[in-house]
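Tutorial, part two.
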Amino acid sequence: MKQYNVGIVGATGMVGQRFATILQDHPWFNVVAVAASARNKGKTYAEACEGRWKMAAPMPEKMKNMIMLDADADAEELASQVDFIFCAVDMKKDEIRALEERYAKLECPVCSNNSANRFTPDVPMIIPEINPQHAEVIHAQRKRLGTKRGFIAVKSNCSIQSYVPALTALMEFEPTEVAVCTYQAISGAGKTFESWPEMLDNVIPYIGGEEEKSEKEPMKVWGRVEGDHIENAVSPKITAQCLRVPVSDGHMAAAFVKFAKKPTREQMLERWKGFSGRAQELNLPSAPKHFLTYFEEDNRPQTRLDRDLEGGMGVSIGRLREDSIYDYKFVSLSHNTLRGAAGGAVLMAELLCAEGYID
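Running the prediction step on this input gives:
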């Protein structure tokens, strides 16, 4: 596979740091540029992250002395150095949309972790095992932007990664209603226990904007490309509650599902066991060998035991049983900063490279 030079825009934040650790030994992607806010311009990456490094793994040696660029003011310079960028900035949504579109118009593809463009009709929101065909809308987006190479592609919200894959494997049985409660780690807010001590021995039953994302984003993921846009799906109907819990990493979901064609428990387990997608077909470097893993034990999956399944890129499921109101209920878990954030964006970029969209 061709080697690609990449940049990390928003490199000092938690997701940006996760990008750095994931990409340090990537077989296809070579980090050659890092950028963040203007206050970090001219510093080395090590200086910019001093006292702020939140990863358990150390900062990659080859990145420590990279000179930080201003994500906005130095956009042209950065775009000239790379084949594409990963974007994970902390800005207002209208500012993020403007920044990502600017890079795209500089003929620099954007693989974004941000939410700002997730509902732009011609921006694909890709989970490679589920909706790789949505990349086709990039042709229409390029026409709108007036670009030849440049485009924006986004990954979905971290919380939906825990239950949407499990539901996708069951689509032939036509799920009609889903109630889900997510229990989300503090790293999803860019925090650690050191920086957020009030989360110790505590649960906060509110995460701003998260319930709306959890109910609406799956509809785009399950939608279809129609002409110059993605037409959202209209079912199943989803209602969600999202809670912040005292866990460092890992988002768990408790899901309740009604089906138009109720499957047997054995059918559901069979579909989960055999489910794979384009990422596995292409043998992408970050793709888990087994996307979905079901645990028979009553007390699994557990966050601490199972969040790193398949290098943090697998989804674990357990406690499938019939329900007295819905047809079935189950619990599922994904790593929110790997599968749910930086790792998911890297896997999406691998797909786009393998399918020729970056070239």
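The chain is about 25% helix and 20% strand. In part three we will examine how such features are distributed along the chain.
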